[in-house]
Amino acid sequence: MNDAGGTVRIATWNIRGGVGLDGRFDIGRIVAELKRFAPDIVALQEVDSRRRAKGLEHPFVLLRDALGAHGVEAKSIIGADGEYGQLLISRWPLEFMRIHDISVPQREPRRAIEAEVCTPFGRLRVVATHLGLTFAERKNQTRALLDLAAPSDATTVMMGDFNDWIWRGSLQNRLNRLLPGRTWHRTFPSFFPMIRLDRIYCRPAAALVRSWVADDARTASDHLPVFADIRPHGPC
């Protein structure tokens, strides 16, 4: 349960399709690890219905129903065998929802989910994303994220798997200027975290009250989940 008064607890996690380091597909394990910290808003990457066994509930539906009353899907790959993409889930209704195509030609399709949430503590603007593996992709995708990070009356949060681990110039520095609050935890690979791929940015910086990773979740995915308590400002 969230014990930081007046704050909203958010989380981001690349769940690797629900397949853990032990090779076991287990969406229930993902849900259980997240529920330990009772997040109010969750961004998940690499949600993959293609991996589920026959007869099991659709992962997009299972995760949304288990973690929040409201959700929006961004399916970047849709095929005869299922769908793959991202999911943004909220305890409270999502408003002004938009899915932005930030794909780069000849590379894996990528999306960014934008929504606003009227929480009991104030309005929160949320962007959830999963960027590409190459520098050229991320450079182009950063332009789109900068537009989405433009100043707003609402407290703004951007979170996801940013996939940048080699060069710190384009993405991190430019986002830091617009979203000065930032988590900076080692999240990948989960069995021995060395790289800070998964992050939560916010504006104003003071809205970020605290953040942490769930080390005990290292078997459930090759990434660790990042949690943060955010204090929104401004009326709904």
Give a verbal description of the structure.
This protein has a single domain (8-230), classed as Deoxyribonuclease I, Chain A, CATH 3.60.10.10. The two termini are 23 Å apart. 18% of the residues lie in helices and 36% in strands. By secondary structure, it is an alpha+beta fold.
Structural class: alpha+beta
* Fraction of helical residues: 10-25%
- Compute the average pLDDT: 91
Number of helices: 4
C-alpha termini separation: 23 Å
Summarize the biggest pleated sheet.
6 strands, mixed
String of helices and strands: EHEHEEEEEHEHEEEE
Number of separate strands:
12
> What is the CATH architecture assignment?
4-Layer Sandwich
Low-confidence region ranges? none
Number of domains: 1
Beta-strand proportion: 35-45%
CATH superfamily: Endonuclease/exonuclease/phosphatase
Indicate the CATH topology: Deoxyribonuclease I, Chain A
Strand order of the largest sheet: 3-4-2-1-12-11
Radius of gyration over all CA atoms, rounded: 16 Å
Shape: globular
- Top CATH class: Alpha Beta
Question: Outline of this structure?
Answer:
The protein is an alpha+beta fold. It is built from 4 helices and 12 strands, in the order βαβαβββββαβαββββ.
SSE inventory with pairings:
Elements (H helix, E strand, L loop, with lengths): L7 E7 L12 H9 L5 E8 L10 H9 L2 E10 L2 E9 L3 E8 L9 E9 L2 E9 L4 H14 L6 E7 L7 H10 L2 E2 L15 E6 L4 E6 L12 E5 L6
Parallel strand pairs: 1-2, 7-8
Antiparallel strand pairs: 1-12, 2-4, 3-4, 5-6, 6-7, 8-10, 9-10, 11-12
